[in-house]
Design brief:
Length: 110
Amino acid sequence: MTRAPITDEQGFIDALTGLGDKSGGALADALAAWNLSSVRTERAQEFARNIVRVLQAAVDLGNDPSTAFRYIKDYPIRSFGSKTALDMVEEGRTDDVVAYLQSLSAGYVG
């Protein structure tokens, strides 16, 4: 099957959503094999890299990739005004999301 070139951010989200129906292992394999050069615009490439960074941070928390993707797409984060991680990436705040997820893996420090 030949993948159609992705030209925008929504195209990348749609492609990942389609992968979300696969088992965790199949999703991980598909993401590992993803060719970001098929993403045509510079803005879409940056967006795709940022989503993959956030997805990796969510997987590093111990989630399987499918669960991690649902988490970043659907779960509102109180610390970010109940926006999702995906909303934050769309606003250009990828570093904040990655730092937040990494702080969760470190556990409570008080």
